[in-house]
Structures are given as structure tokens and as C-alpha cells.
Amino acid sequence: MAEQVRAIRTRRTILSAAAKIFEEHGYQAATISQILKEARTTKGALYFHFMSKEDLAQAVLAEQDHRIMVPPRISKVQEIVDAVMLHAHRLQTDPMVRAGVRLTMDQMAQGLDRSGPFLRWAEVGRRLLQEAQVRGELLPHAVPAETADVIVGSFAGIQSMSQAVCEYRDLPGRVSAMMRHVLPSAVAPSILASLDLSESRGARVYAEALEAAEAGEAAVTAG
Predict the structure, then answer these.
(1) In the Cβ-directed half-sphere of 123, how many Cα atoms lie within 13 Å?
(2) Is the pTM for the entire model greater than 0.70?
(3) pLDDT tens, 16-48?
(4) What is residue 138's DSSP assignment?
(5) Alpha-carbon distance 24 to 21, whole Å?
(6) Which tens digit of pLDDT belongs to each residue from 108-155?
């Protein structure tokens, strides 16, 4: 058990170090030597957990999706809003998420498949919008897959602009504005009127989701 805990801790340390180096230098310029120095570990330990720099990058890309999730909502459109707002908040506060986004948007990352996050986000959006459609939350002409792609693409552009202009400081406001412009083309007016699109929504959802995650971990431990 102690060895397993140490292995998990070592993997986390290496992943955090890789995230820092990828965010600072980009995929192409980052080196295994830099990651080893940042992690203060051996090459053997790194290659025990990750086969290559690409394997490390893919782990960072995947990590941004798994750390904390939005609790289910009665309104599936609100759930989509909360997922986007939460991601915006984490971009401001979580180095792992920033590194994952840096890799996702890095067009110079030769040999790295960057499609995963885009496809996963689009799939989550499509599923939630299909549920919203069944519940009567969407306009009759709305196509869930199309709307999901527009939201994901719009968010990618908005966050990239915010990063370039002010290192994500104004991202919640930009995302709120994006949602106010995009959602009316697909969402029923009665649902629109009930949505919380405020700039502080992401921070509040984060606190709620973190509390739910900690409660779940406590229940597992007690069990």
C-alpha cells in the first residue's frame, strides 16, 4: 500500500512538473530534461509512468477534464453554462488546466494529437443539449451537435483572446458575454430568462463542485 501511495504521488509530481514546463515553453520547446529538473526525480521514475514526452502531454490534456465536475442541474442548458464557466474559473486558478489549454491551442506542437479536448468537450455539450432538447429547453430548429461545436469553438477563441490580452483576468466577463450572444439562437426564451450567466458563476460552481467531490471522497473513505 505504501509503495502504491508513493507511486501515485510520484506520478502526480511528474505530471505537475510537465504541466509547468509545457505552459512556460510550449510542447515543441519543452524537454524531458527540463521536466526532470522541475520534478526533482529520475529518468527511470519518469519513464516508469510515462513512455515519452507525447505521453506526458496527453496525460496533461486529459487531466484538465477529470479533476472536478459540475453537479447535475435540472436545466441542462444551465449545466452547460456551468461547465463552461467552471472551466473559465479553473483557467484562472489551476496550472494543470492552463497547461492543458496551452497544449490544446498550440499549433506548433508537431506530432501531438490535440483533438482530444475539443472532441470531448463537443461530446459533453452535444449530450447535454440533446437532454435539453428532450426537456423542451431548446428552440425547434436547434441542432445539438451544431450548437455544441459553436460553443466549444467560441470558447476556444474567447479564452485565447483573454490569455493574449490580460492573462485570463477578464475571462469570466468574456465568457458571460459569449453565452449571452450564442444561447439565444438555440435556447427557448423561457429558459434563457432563468439562466445564471453572471461573471461570478464559475467561482460559485467551483466551490459547490469541490464540496461535492470532498463529500464523495469522505463517503468512500468511511465505507
Answers:
(1) 7
(2) yes
(3) 999 999 999 999 999 999 999 999 999 999 999
(4) B
(5) 5
(6) 888 899 998 899 999 999 999 999 999 999 999 999 999 999 999 999
